[in-house]
Write a structure and sequence with these properties.
Blueprint: E1 2-9, H1 10-13, E2 20-23, H2 35-47, E3 53-61, E4 70-76, H3 78-96, H4 104-115, E5 128-129, H5 136-147, H6 164-179, H7 186-199, E6 201-207, H8 210-221, H9 229-239, H10 246-263, H11 267-280, H12 282-285, H13 299-309, H14 311-329, H15 338-349, H16 356-364, H17 373-393, H18 398-413, H19 420-431, H20 435-442, H21 446-449, H22 451-464, E7 477-478, E8 481-482, E9 485-488, H23 498-503, H24 508-518, E10 525-528, H25 531-534, H26 539-544, H27 563-566, H28 573-590
Parallel strand pairs: 2-4, 2-5, 3-6
Antiparallel strand pairs: 1-6, 3-4, 7-8, 9-10
Helix pairs in contact: 3-5, 3-6, 3-7, 9-13, 10-14, 11-16, 13-14, 14-16, 15-17, 16-18, 17-19, 20-28
Length: 594
């Protein structure tokens, strides 16, 4: 079934001297990775102290002539390989822009980087061919052209900047440039990034035909759970009691299970706790472990040392921290203070997980720092405002967040000469985006740029104006979906209904232009309970829709955020622009840091 299995560094997988190309077959899904995946990949690959493991790929190799180009059909791993290739293109672009600074050897590295993306013969043949669905193949070639890897295209694909592949490329360029420090030559830092990406490792599995590929794919995805780092830490902890009586082993096991029960069944939350525990309390753990930061790759090594130093002390400390973390991060425990619990929930919804290490530190040291629960609520609200701004603007970069909160805990450990809240606000304002950039991003295509954050902003504004009579749970779930979701007032679909074409001026071209520029802006968005039933309905139908019992299921849903919509009889570009400005002002004021 399996022809070969090799662990390959990216430098080997895309070897300069190898005539290997990877083709994503048309039956595979289109490119679907989003900003969250891009963040994880660049942070993991550039943050790993050694070659980062990217997982496995499965290829079908039906090459018959050794002199031919080896065309491998990529049947598993296409999202990773596509994103990795886009990252390499972004690095090439940033490095090529500094070509004048490169010496002869460094220029050779730039050429080799280009050869990771295109073959030498046939000239400029891409090493990766995405599928054509949603113009993936054309967009990828456009990325190579924009990066300078191949010559400029005469005709760029239409609407290129609004699709994922070009967005991914531009995101990586921005992130790479943001990581460049003025402390050393920029081209040296870029070459080091290229080396880190080239050292990342994948397991490449080759099979001969689609039947073998399918069987292997099913086997790999149904093989059962492998041992995780958390399992290995547990095993090390239990092994530390070797030679003791059964009761001692049982007691340690019960304490460990108590920690896991607090964290809940979500493995990602468990792993994040163990990383953030070390990063939060690094100052007091330095006498045992001297790792600069806990990452996925060194997690086991850190906890082996902590356990070897004394498992009783380890379990005692980490159990108390896990109790607090469970309340903060949404484990099995909730805070007994309703206001504090609500603050933790708001922070989770604002995607504030990087700050959980700070809150865990504050709660562990609440007495020493003389903090009340009310102080913690205010700090949660401050962090919510910070993360909304951060997630809307992309600043600071993801990799800076951990450094920020570790630096704050370091400062708290050594004492601060001012109120903690004021110190935190000063630190957060100092690293946050400017007010002008925050406003600019709020006024842009908010829905397309970040659906989750747009929904959070709209729900927050709606909740702020609720009364006891109008209060509804905008976070209620129906299965795995929110019952209340974001509704486009002017529809976003490609086929604009005739009623909307007329409302936008009567011309399909004008309607499409308005749609392209304004459909995803805040002014055209609302929160509704019955999104699916509204869809492409006319404006008046969206206002007045009722169910079979006569209940309003349209925009007249008692949310004050819709008041300026339901008072209108038409919905035009001018209405969208005006409402956008109003919502931008409201969001800017609501999530103010200063």
């Amino acid at each position: 079934m399996i022809d070969s299995v090799k662990d390959c560094a990216v430098s080997s997988l895309l070897g300069v001297d190898h005539k290997i190309v990877y083709v994503i077959p048309p039956y595979q899904r289109e490119y679907t990775w989003s900003k969250t995946h891009w963040e994880d990949l660049i942070d993991d690959v550039l943050g790993a102290p050694e070659g980062y493991f990217l997982g496995s790929i499965i290829c079908i190799n039906q090459q018959k002539d050794a002199t031919d180009i080896a065309q491998l059909e990529l049947v598993d791993g296409q999202q990773r390989i596509t994103t990795l290739s886009i990252l390499l293109a972004a690095l090439y672009s940033c490095l090529a822009a500094r070509k004048g600074e490169l010496d002869e050897d460094e220029n050779a590295s730039l050429i080799n980087l280009r050869r990771k993306l295109v073959l030498k013969e046939p000239a400029d043949h891409p090493r990766l061919t995405p599928q054509r669905q949603n113009n993936n193949a054309g967009d990828y070639v456009a990325v190579l052209s924009e990066a300078g890897v191949i010559k400029q295209l005469r005709n760029r694909p239409g609407n290129l900047g609004n699709r994922r592949i070009m967005k991914c490329y531009r995101y990586f360029v921005d992130q790479i440039e943001a990581r460049i420090s003025p402390a050393e030559p920029s081209h040296s830092q870029l070459l080091r990034m290229v080396e880190q990406v080239s050292a990342a490792v994948l397991v490449k599995i080759e099979v001969k035909n689609h039947s073998d590929a399918y069987v292997l794919f099913e086997s790999l995805n149904n093989r059962g759970a492998q041992l995780t780092p958390i399992d290995l830490i547990k095993n090390k902890l239990l092994a530390s009691t070797h030679g003791k009586d059964a009761l001692a082993v049982e007691a340690v096991f019960e304490e460990w299970m108590g920690i896991i029960d607090l964290l809940g069944d979500d493995y990602s939350l468990q792993e994040r706790f163990f990383r953030q525990y070390y990063n939060a309390f690094k100052e007091v753990l330095n006498d045992v472990v001297n790792e600069p930061v806990a990452t996925r790759s060194n997690l086991i090594r850190i906890y082996e040392k902590l356990i070897e130093h004394g498992h009783e002390e380890f379990v005692s400390r980490i159990s108390a921290a896990a109790d607090f973390y469970s309340q903060i991060a949404g484990g099995s425990r909730s805070s007994e203070n309703p206001a504090l619990n609500a603050g933790f929930i708001r922070l989770r919804r604002a995607q504030g997980a990087p700050s959980h290490l700070l809150l865990m530190y504050l709660m562990t040291n609440q007495g020493r720092l003389n903090l009340t629960d009310g102080d913690l609520v205010e700090i949660c609200d401050l962090l919510v405002a910070f993360f909304v701004r951060r997630n809307v603007t992309g600043l600071p970069a993801t990799y800076e967040l951990q450094r920020l909160f570790m630096a704050i805990t370091h400062q708290l450990h050594h004492g601060v000469g001012e109120p903690i809240f004021e110190m935190l606000r000063e630190r957060l304002v100092g690293i946050s985006s400017s007010d002008d950039l925050f406003r600019e991003k709020l006024a842009g295509n908010a829905y397309e740029d970040s659906y989750d954050m747009t929904r959070f902003i709209l729900c927050s504004l709606a909740e702020a104006s609720m009364t006891d009579e109008t209060r509804v749970d905008l976070w209620a779930m129906e299965g795995k979906r929110h019952a209340w979701s974001v509704e486009h007032i002017f529809p976003q679909g490609a086929n604009i209904p005739a009623s909307w074409v007329e409302m936008m001026g009567g011309s399909p071209e004008v309607a499409k232009a308005v749609q392209a520029e304004h459909v995803h802006t805040l002014g055209n968005l609302s929160i509704t309970r019955f999104n699916a039933t509204l869809s492409n309905k006319s404006f008046l139908d969206k206002l007045n829709a009722r169910d079979s019992n006569g209940n309003s299921v349209g925009l007249k849903n008692m949310l004050r955020i819709n008041d300026d919509v339901i008072s209108e009889s038409t919905w035009t570009k001018q209405h969208i622009v005006q409402r956008s400005q109003q919502l931008v002002d409201a969001a800017f004021s609501y999530f103010r840091l200063k």
